[in-house]
Each structure stands twice: as C-alpha cells, then as structure tokens.
Design brief:
P-loop_NTPase, alpha/beta, Ribonucleotide Reductase Protein R1, domain 1, OB fold (Dihydrolipoamide Acetyltransferase, E2P), globular, about 425 residues, binds zinc ion, about 25% strand, binds guanosine-5'-triphosphate, Rossmann fold
C-alpha cells in the first residue's frame, strides 16, 4: 500500500472548508456550487450522517449549529482535489459501475493479496464536495481507496449471495476522462480510459476512413490512445489490398490496426493482446460488429454484464450506465493490473467530435505536426493558402492524401 502522501510529488496541501449551517440548507445540486473556487468549497448540507464522515485528518471547529465549520485536508494534484486519508485498513480498487453515491468496486492485487474481491460501496459525501461537479464524484473506471465495513460487512443480497460492503474514502486523480454533455453540464461516463478501440467494418456498412479520422481526433483531444479494429474482413466485398494499405498507414502513425472478423476469428488474438493491461472503451457506428467482436474476444462477458446489472437493479438493456468488464480468456494474464478492462458504455458508442473547434483540428493530426511550423502564414488552415507546408507534404507523399482529405472534410463540416 502506498505511504500517506505528505509534501510528496507536485501536490500541494489545501484546506477545504465546509460551512455547516443548519438553518440554511441548500440543495445538493445547487448551481451556485459550480462558481466556488476549486480549493475552497462551501457546503451547507449537514446532517448526522455527514458528521460520521469526519475522520482523522478532518476536524470540526467553531461553535454551535449556525457556524460550525470543518476543514478537510486535501491535496491538489493535476488540478484535482485528492482527499488526505489515513490509508491504514484501506484497499485500492477500481469502480466497476457507479450510480449516484453508490458503486461496485473490485479490489486490486496488493502484496500478499490477489485482489478481485467485489465490494458494494457507499461514497463519503465529502468526496462529492471535493469534486468539481458533485454528480461526477465517483464514476466507472475510477481508482479508489475503500474501507471495508467490518461490523456488518456482509449482508444478504437479493440473489442470496453474500455481499461485502465498504466505504469509498478517496478517489485518485483521473486521466482519460470520457464525458458527454447533458443539459449543459459535463457528465463523466468513464474515467481512466487508456485507449479507445475504434471499430469499423470492412464492408456492410462500407469503410469510411474519414470516420476513423474523426474518432482519432476525438481520442487525441481526450488524451487517450487509440487502436483500430477493422471488422468483417471475411466479407467478399472486403477489399484486401486496400485494407492492408490502410492498416499500414495507421500503424505508421502509431495507431495499432487489426484486420479482424468476429465470424472467422481473424485478428482476435491481437485485439485481446491490445486490450490486456489497459482500460478501454469501444466505439464505432452501429452495426459494425462491436458486440460480436467483444463476445469472441471474451465469450463470458455477456454473462458477467448480467451479474453487474443485477446488482444495480436494472436490466442490461435499461441501464445507460457504463460498466467495466474484465478480460480473462485467451491465456492473457488476467489478475490485478495485468487484466484488460473494457467499458461497456452505450453513450460513447458513437464517439463523435463533440467540442473540437476547427482551429484545433490540425493539432490532432499527428503527421501534420512537423510541417505546420513551416507554413507561410501562422494561421494557415492548410486549405486555400499558398506557401502551405502541409499541402506540400501531401504532394510529395509525406502526408497521406486519405488523411489530408479527412482533415479537410472535418474542418469544412462535410463529414
Ligand atoms: N460477416 C460478418 N458479419 C458480422 C461480423 N461481426 C458482426 N457481424 C454482423 O453484423 C451485425 C451487427 O453486429 P453487432 O455486433 O450487433 O454490431 P454492433 O457494432 O455491436 O452494433 P450496435 O449494437 O448497433 O452498435 C450482426 O448481424 C452481426 O452478425 C463479422 O466479423 N463478419
Ligand atoms: Zn498550412
């Protein structure tokens, strides 16, 4: 278990104050909360339950109900407030699914412990206050510290199986967050995404490189890696030489590209290997075979989805929540951090360009980067301008015309 951080790393300790005021309760989702500066967040909600949230490093001060204040020690890392907790007795885990302040956590392997235990968790309210937006306090894919509840640690679940209970004490800093906008607010679907697996089909529906490039731009903008799976290569309409050329192009740009078929099993071993050790989301048009491919990669997944959904009380087809699935088959290491995790997230299946402005797009075409500084005009859009180094690179073959066409289609809004 990691030692308690103090003055370590780039993190700076901050005190987060919570004003406790019983006479002036505000709704938890009060919009004004968003206007508060990151480090000092006022929260008026107060009840006995919340007093229980106070642990070692936190204290209550002030007198009387009207002006009780408490201070939570947190550390600012990567712009996120991380709560300082006594890690003794805590376990590190990964959020498999989350709804509000409840989540299902699977523990990670630690010294002398294989991990893989699942706990139903509640989340300390203080974590909601620390989060920039309380509703995203704990999301699928989060790495967390949980404290198992010893007293009534086990209770009977509806299905009869004993369940372990715990409390989420801390959410670790996130990377690779996939979110969508909902009513003008960010709704985080999955956190800690290492890569997006972009699934397209060789035919039926026909392959459109521009669609791949759009999704690559989204991945680049989100700071997550990307892997491309071209499914349905078994179809007679699949143009092999063209597919191989395309795969070579994307591979040369650093995007692993697999020619695959859920029907024949082609490419499945490589996809499995690319998933191992990462937390991935799968994206792609409807009908390209994402589900089919995943079911061949890990035949047991549909079954496990059922179990998780059973816990949330919702059937697979009614929940829009992201759920993490663990890769176990195929001889790939499947314990602890070596396991592959895939988020089943209906909301990101169409991994669209949500909020990429035209002027930003060039930055997400990797191969343009060495050329852009040599354009004659600093605000060159690489379309109609003369002295454009990007267009020159297309002419001399250093940049693929397919990719350049995608770029033009994206910024002209025709794709
Ligand atoms: N020939 C061929 N057909 C495939 C292959 N993979 C999937 N299909 C077929 O393509 C259709 C769509 O497959 P799905 O797995 O449902 O596609 P999906 O991408 O999950 O679709 P959505 O759930 O709508 O997003 C089904 O009829 C599959 O049988 C393949 O490798 N080869
Ligand atoms: Zn240019």
């Amino acid at each position: 278990m990691a030692p308690k951080r103090s003055g370590k790393g780039s993190g700076q300790k901050v005190r987060v104050e919570f004003r406790k005021n019983r006479t002036n309760r505000t709704r938890v989702n009060d919009l004004t909360r968003d206007a508060a500066p990151a480090a000092v967040v006022g929260e008026n909600a107060t009840d006995e339950e919340e007093l229980d949230d106070l642990t070692g490093g936190e204290r209550l001060s002030g007198k009387g109900n009207l002006s009780r204040r408490r201070t939570v020690v947190a550390e600012e890392r990567d712009g996120q407030l991380i709560r300082d907790v006594d890690v003794a007795g805590c376990l590190a885990g990964r959020v498999i699914s989350a709804i509000g302040l409840h989540c299902l956590v699977e523990t990670e392997a630690a010294a002398g412990d294989a991990g893989g235990e699942r706990y139903e968790c509640t989340v300390r309210r203080v974590l909601r206050t620390l989060a920039r937006d309380g509703r995203n306090a704990v999301v699928t894919g989060d790495r967390v510290l949980i404290r198992p509840q010893e007293a009534d640690g086990v209770r009977d679940a509806p299905g009869g199986a004993a369940k372990k209970m715990a409390v989420v004490e801390r959410v670790e800093p996130r990377h690779g967050v996939i979110s969508r906008e909902h009513k003008n607010r960010e709704h985080v679907l999955v956190a800690n995404v290492d890569q997006v697996v972009i699934v397209v089909s060789a035919a039926d529906p026909p392959l459109k490189p521009a669609l791949i490039d759009r999704m690559l731009v989204s991945a680049e903008k989100g700071g997550v890696g990307a892997t491309i799976a071209v499914n349905k290569c078994d179809l007679p309409d699949a143009d092999r030489p063209r597919l191989e050329e395309l795969a070579a192009l994307y591979e040369s740009l650093g995007y692993p590209t697999v020619l695959a078929s859920a029907r024949t099993g082609e490419g499945v071993d490589r996809i499995r290997a690319l998933l191992a050790g990462s937390q991935s989301v799968v994206a792609g048009q409807s009908g390209v075979g994402k589900s089919s491919l995943l079911n061949v990669v890990e035949p047991g997944w549909s079954l496990r989805v059922g179990e998780v959904s059973g816990w949330t009380g919702k059937g697979r087809h009614t929940t829009r929540r992201a759920i993490l699935l663990r890769l176990t088959a195929g001889g790939v290491a499947a314990v602890g951090d070596d396991a592959g995790w895939v988020a089943d997230t209906p909301g990101v299946r169409q991994f669209a360009l949500w909020d990429v402005a035209n002027f930003e797009v060039e930055a997400y075409f990797r191969e343009f980067q060495p050329h852009i500084p040599h354009c004659k005009y600093p605000d060159c859009t690489h379309t109609h301008e003369d002295g454009c180094a990007v267009k020159a690179a297309v002419l001399d073959g250093a940049i693929s015309r397919v990719r350049y066409d995608s770029y033009v289609r994206i910024i002209s809004g025709t794709e």
